[in-house]
Amino acid sequence: MGIQKFEDIIAWQKSGVLVLEMYEAFSKCRDFDFRKQIQRAVVSIMNNIAEGFERKSNKEFIYFLYVAKGSCGEVRSMLYLALKLGYIQEKEFQNFYNQSVEISKILAGLIRSL
Q1: What DSSP designation does 6 have?
Q2: Domain for residue 107, yes or no?
């Protein structure tokens, strides 16, 4: 049967949760450039999954899944900075980091299956 719409993709669903949690966590961050960059990176995960799926080509879908996976890496890199700069606490860092790793693993599995 396969996936009928991008909203059914688990990685897309989980990335949507991560977006909301990270927007909340950084909503009061006064470093506007940092906040905008980490928000763009986390939104990029879910948007690239959706865009790639809608292309209706496995080759293009795989490309966009790799872009989404790259955005997971960018988010994790920025989380290290956020922790070191005191923008988030260790508990938040671990939560976001773990979610990002999980999404990245799901994306890798989806890429392999295609």
Answers
A1: G
A2: yes
d(Cα 13, Cα 40) in Å, to the nearest integer?
17
Whole-structure pTM value: 0.95
Classify burial at 83, counting beta carbons within 10 Å of its beta carbon; exposed 0-12, middle 13-18, buried 19 or more: middle
Count up the domains in the chain and report the number.
1
Range of the domain at 95: 62-114
Distance separating alpha carbons of residues 23 and 39, to the nearest angstrom: 7
Query: Locate tokens 């890429």: which residue?
Result: 111
Per-residue pLDDT reduced to its tens digit, 23-79: 999 999 999 999 999 999 999 999 999 999 999 999 999 999 999 999 999 999 999
Residue 83 lies in a domain: yes
Q: Is residue 78 part of a domain?
A: yes
